[in-house]
Design brief:
- It is a single chain.
- The chain contains eleven helices and eight strands.
- The chain has 274 residues and is of the alpha/beta class.
- Strands 3-2-1-8-7-6-5-4 form an eight-stranded parallel sheet.
- Helix 1 runs parallel beside helix 3 and helix 6 packs parallel to helix 7.
Length: 274
């Protein structure tokens, strides 16, 4: 960091096992990638080429090279895997991963239905040669998955070889672990974390209020994904208590209480003056 400041939560260094941040690239140009890396590359652990954008994006190999050289692991979104799998082209998908020298891959079933035993076999197969992240949850808001099933799927996918399980939230943050209005399914999430180690879960949380909610629950080292390229620095400030939403979360309790009391007293004086 640029200067010293006390009471800033500690952040693990890259390559991280926790406190991972995933940026979602939905079609950045080469120049935009260079600018992004200059501004936020030090804060970024992994980059997902959202949904099927890897199929149509220009300068794909050059973009991948830029990310790798910056110490960022790129990978193709799970929807692209599903597009191959739905067409009976799983082996072709593996060839694409080899073609682009990707050591990170996502296995998901958010758009199609894959029997879970079969999905775990796919995870196990891909994990022999590369790091796997698997996604749990449907992109269809009409499909309701019970907490017990969420837990079972997450556990078995981790056992099959997933490095992290991704909790579906979609790019809009309105399905999966979120309600249609973007607020968290607190009962579901509490059930999940009572049974699955939180550091093994990456929460898709594109909205600021969702990021704040998870940071308040888990602290600075929570794994978060589907973050926009212009939101990486603002998110890191949330993690470190350098924005109003988390300002008091990492200060000593007595210090924070004293400051809050001063603010309350000032508010009362302002009301009296009016």
């Amino acid at each position: 960091m640029n200067f010293q400041l006390p009471y800033i939560p500690e952040r693990s260094a890259k390559p991280r096992e926790k406190g991972v941040t995933m940026m979602m690239d939905k079609g950045l140009s080469l120049n935009e990638v260079e600018n992004f890396i200059q501004a936020s590359g030090h804060l970024t652990d992994i980059v997902k080429f959202g949904f099927g954008t890897a199929y149509v994006t220009t300068d794909l190999k050059e973009k991948l090279k830029l990310y790798r050289e910056a110490g960022i692991r790129p990978y193709f979104g799970g929807t692209l895997f599903e597009a191959f799998y739905a067409r009976g082209k799983f082996n072709d998908y593996l060839k694409v991963l080899d073609q682009y020298d990707l050591d990170l891959a996502e296995i998901s079933d958010g758009s199609i239905i894959i029997p879970h035993d079969e999905k775990c076999e796919l995870i196990q197969k891909v994990a022999k040669d590369r790091t796997v992240m698997s996604e749990v949850g449907s992109k269809d808001s009409g499909i309701i998955i019970s907490p017990a099933k969420w837990i079972k799927m997450m556990k078995t996918e981790l056992e099959a070889g997933s490095w992290k399980v991704i909790a579906e939230g979609r790019e809009a943050g309105n399905v999966g672990v979120f309600r249609p209005n973007g607020t968290a399914h607190t009962f579901l999430i509490n059930r999940i974390i009572a049974n699955v180690a939180p550091e093994k879960i990456l929460w898709e949380a594109p909205q600021k209020n969702q990021q704040v909610w998870f940071i308040k629950l888990f602290g600075a080292e929570v794994n978060l994904g589907n973050i926009g390229p212009n939101e990486m620095i603002p998110l890191e400030c949330l993690r470190l208590g350098l924005r109003g939403d988390t300002f008091f979360d990492f200060l000593p309790e007595d210090y924070a209480a004293r400051l809050k009391q001063v603010n309350d007293d000032d508010a009362v004086e302002d009301d009296n003056e009016e």
